[in-house]
Amino acid sequence: MKNVLEAPFMAEMIRTTTNMYAHGWDERNGGNISMLLDEEEVKKYLSIPAIVRVIPTGFEAPELDGKYFLVTGTGKYFKNVQYDPKKNLGIVRLANGGTEAEVLWGFSDGGKFTSEFPAHMMSHIARMKVDSENRVVMHCHPTNLLAMTYVHSLDEKAFTRTLWQMCTECIVVFPDGVNVLPWMLCGTNEIGEATAKKMETARLVVWAQHGIYGAGRDLDETFGLIETAEKAAEIWLKIAHLPILNTITDDQMHLLEKRFGVKAREGYLS
């Protein structure tokens, strides 16, 4: 049996959490990640079944029954993942229609998965229906996107267009735009359901006055989605109070669509 700490998915998770903390997106124990794992890949590193303990999830997710996830722990600091992965991360398998999570590895101090686990799992279900390759859900608190929700309209079309106009690459990286939720109580099934609904039409969902959710095929893609939107928000905050003399026009964005083979969200460009 191979050492799970040497698994590529583990190395990627450790590298990503470390990088996110360094970016200032995950202060204290803020932020969380879940990654859908391939069963055959997991079996290379863990004896299956080898259940350490079982944790109720508090929701039903029959679509994910028997699925394996690498997930960050509740109350854990991203900066510490690289030093003690087994304490700060866990590999779980959903069982009994998603009402239980079987801990197969990790959470060695008796901890459990992130408090945002419902939002993650519901978002996985939503994204898998759109793109079966989507395997990662990432939540963090990027400073500029968070600040933007205090001073910009939360209308999704307006929010998206502002970000698209800040950087040439934005419409290429997230042509499906950005969806936005008004402030809601975090860690609940209600915000999980609302986020999942938004995930049906976009891979980025902003939580106003809180942070952002991103989904993608792997950790790099998902990190890059958030990173690109955050850079655009930073530029907007630097120039929003100034007279705007130039911008990326809709005609120019149509040129980007053709050049890069993407399609902007329907109705968002003239």
Secondary structure layout plus pairing:
Blueprint: H1 8-22, E1 32-37, H2 39-43, E2 53-56, E3 68-72, H3 78-81, H4 85-88, E4 89-95, E5 100-106, H5 117-130, E6 136-140, H6 143-151, H7 156-164, H8 170-173, E7 178-181, H9 189-199, E8 204-207, E9 211-216, H10 219-239, H11 250-260
Helix pairs in contact: 5-9, 6-10
Verbal overview:
This protein is an alpha+beta fold and 270 residues long. The chain folds into two domains: 1-114, L-fuculose-1-phosphate Aldolase; 116-270, Class II aldolase/adducin N-terminal domain (L-fuculose-1-phosphate Aldolase, 3-Layer(aba) Sandwich). Helices cover 40% and strands 18% of the residues. It contains eleven helices and nine strands. It has helices spanning 8-22, 39-43, 78-81, 85-88, 117-130, 143-151, 156-164, 170-173, 189-199, 219-239, 250-260, and strands at residues 32-37, 53-56, 68-72, 89-95, 100-106, 136-140, 178-181, 204-207, 211-216. It has a nine-stranded mixed β-sheet with strand order 2-5-4-3-1-6-9-8-7, sandwiched between helices.
